[in-house]
Specification:
Blueprint: H1 3-25, H2 43-46, E1 54-58, H3 61-76, E2 81-85, H4 91-101, E3 109-113, H5 120-127, E4 131-135, H6 141-150, E5 154-157, H7 163-175, E6 182-186, H8 189-199, E7 203-207, H9 212-220, H10 225-233, E8 241-247, H11 249-259, E9 265-270, H12 275-289, E10 309-311, H13 318-321, E11 327-330, H14 342-346, E12 350-353, H15 362-369, E13 373-375, H16 379-391, H17 394-407, H18 411-422
Parallel strand pairs: 1-2, 1-4, 2-3, 4-5, 5-6, 6-7, 8-9, 8-11, 9-10, 11-12, 12-13
Amino acid sequence: MTFREKLYRSWIAPGLGRAIGQIREGRAGWPSERIPLIGARDPSKSLAAGRAELWFHAASAGELESLWPLIGRALAEGVPAVVTAFSRSAIPSLERFLRESGESVTGKLVLAGSPVEGSWARALAAWKPRAFITAKYEAWPELWMALASAETPLVIIGASRRRSLLATRALLRGLGAREPRYLFATFAEADAAELQEEFADAAEITVTGDPRWDRVIQRAEKRDPRVREIVAAASNLPRPWWVVGSAWREDLAVFLPALAATQGTVWVVPHSLAGSTLDPLITSILTRTGAAKIPRTSQRDSLSGTPKYILVDEMGFLAEFYGSCDFAVIGGGFGQGLHSTLEPAAQGLAVAAGPVGSAAFAEVTELKSSNQLTIVHDEAEARAWVTRCIGSDHARERAVRLESARARAGATDRAWSFIRGAC
């Protein structure tokens, strides 16, 4: 170990980690008892004892989505693993996984908040994983140095030539530190080519596709009982059915006027059912549509007659509900950041959304190039999209898009084979 590497690992990284930890936890501290933080000084005291064959780690909830199919595969095959996330945003996803899995994860998976810079080496020494598997972004210098020292491969799902990877690698070289063994699983051929040019023989690179497609396709094929009930109760409502999923008030300001003159039924699914979100959303719908009230799916008799606008004030089945609709608008793109477009895409729907945050999703470029996704910037563009949808051969085009979505399946198998074969 060079003097510069020792200086970073012994002095700079711990100080940086303390500062990062304070920012992450805030004044209230880590907000989950079921998802503990891995201790900085002695990780083994924070979690149950035992060796983890694989360590899955994500920066936040978004990156965790790419890892869930692989975590599920590890669980199915009885491979002991640790699953960690850095951001507080991942806590709901981790807690939901615990609720849904129940006793099936006991003794097989440990879910926790991740270490911070300066604590990775102790955590790796406690768990001794055969591979450290992360998604897209995570590139902490001390983590990479600790992986190299432990001779633990670094597997990146959805790897691409990101600045964070290049900067961390440059820092390690500047410190004279060893680099870990790189295993890059990319979503596209272009990403693999760029990484090959940058890393050459220093990395093992393969194209797997995005495991999230397997996850959403599996959900798309699920027949949710509540969706069946709603669709049966609404069977008299005119088609086409338009759904505004994960809706924010800003999205409705653009899309509701565009949908006002169309035939069919508009289903609005809020991004949250909290009163602070739901009340302004309802007010926006009433104001922009001129309706005296808006029926809610939670009110069992509300779907009688032929209401044009319906509020889906229930959660947990949006991915399945897309399959009963004809066209989809995805919320968040006019202020808070676009929500995932994968769920409606997997159902073969034509999709529209605002521009904010669209660059954060790898699939956006692919869906735009196939004309399945349209990014609109204002009401006029939203009206143009609605007009194109009405004039399209909807059934034929949807069948083609469904076939294309199914062709993306299998990424989990490819990524799992890559990991197991290399580790």
